[in-house]
Amino acid sequence: MSATPVIEVQRLPHADGLALPAYHSVLAAGMDLLAAVPENEPLILAAGKRAVVPTGLMIALPPGYEAQVRPRSGLAAKHGVTVLNAPGTIDADYRGEIGVLLINHGNTDFTIQRGERIAQMVIAPVSQARFTPVAALSETGRGSGGFGSTGR
């Protein structure tokens, strides 16, 4: 296994007092991201609507890494609230605030309070591919079989 990447993080003023992302179990893959909405102004995510929820954090990933923003299973299972563009990708050269694009697939409005765990972030190594045009691709057993071609 490779060395643990060090991620520089800058907390914006609206995230003062909120915990930094952290793993909550020994073998956890994701760190929780918290909502940096004002204490006295929770964000109401209406049923069927979407919103970008601020985290108040900016990060500097080392080259060769990305951060993936993924749903929290509890929010999805209990409330129908999930990350719309899952997984959202944060590139190593992005230096803006991390926002979480949530959608409420539930039947009732969902209130997002300050400090609420709204998503999880996974740090992962990446590689950049190079495309080479060819006249034909190599043959495989699957061929061009698409959706549902390998089973139900």
Low-confidence stretches: none
- CATH fold naming: Deoxyuridine 5'-Triphosphate Nucleotidohydrolase, Chain A
* CATH-derived architecture: Distorted Sandwich
Q: Can you tell me the overall shape? A: globular
**Spatial strand arrangement across the major sheet:** 1-4-8-6
Helix content: under 10%
Can you tell me the CATH class? Mainly Beta
Main β-sheet, in a few words? 4 strands, antiparallel
Average per-residue pLDDT, rounded, comes to: 95
Question: Helical segment tally?
Answer: 1
Short description:
By secondary structure, the protein is mostly beta strands. The chain has one helix spanning 73-79, and strands at 8-11, 31-34, 43-45, 50-60, 65-70, 81-83, 88-90, 97-104, 110-112, 117-125.
Describe this structure in words.
With 152 residues, the chain is mainly β. The protein has one domain: Distorted Sandwich (Deoxyuridine 5'-Triphosphate Nucleotidohydrolase, Chain A), CATH 2.70.40. Helices cover 5% and strands 36% of the residues. It contains one helix and ten strands; from the N terminus they run E-E-E-E-E-H-E-E-E-E-E. The strands form three sheets. The chain has a four-stranded antiparallel beta sheet with strand order 1-4-8-6. It has a four-stranded antiparallel beta sheet with strand order 2-10-5-7, with no helix packed on it. The longest helix has 7 residues. The radius of gyration is 19 Å and the shape is globular. The two termini are 36 Å apart.
